[in-house]
Amino acid sequence: MSAPLIVLVGPMGVGKSTVGQLLAERLGTGYRDTDADIVAAQGRTIAEIFVDDGESAFRALEKEAVRTALAEHEGVLALGGGAILDADTRGLLAGQQVVYLSMDVEEAVRRTGLNTARPLLAVNPRKQWRELMEARRHLYEEVATVVVATDGRTPEEVTRAALDALESKSVSPGDVPGTPGRRTLR
User: Binding site residues for Mg(2+), as ranges?
Assistant: First the structure.
């Protein structure tokens, strides 16, 4: 069984796809996105799956896509924003090099406009984004090897910060309190 070099997690719109492609390029490896895997397999957008089949059906597809990608892919892997909601998925991430790309709500507004094309943000997107992050932040942190804040950074700067964080993940000042070996780069 193979394993990805790096797994990216974080909220929708944080830049997992862009940073993932840049990381893969820098490392000379492949890039894979589980959301893209689902869209290709289903022949529908994620928004269409949510509308037609519901969130629980999408989450089942997502769980399988993540399991398959973790077993098959040896490069950089980006997971959908909600993949960490599943306890089995979080278990599969144990021992992986997981980078949590974080951003605050102001950055989310700037990047995505919190548009309603994203199915979980269809009504009152700013409030829903905050609620999603309140529910998910601790799960992202639970699976993360390193946390990289993306606020105000270019994708290239985030890529460099992620590589630097993974290279220097030994315990030192600046580590996440109570979490030996995990660093937050701001």
Answer: 17
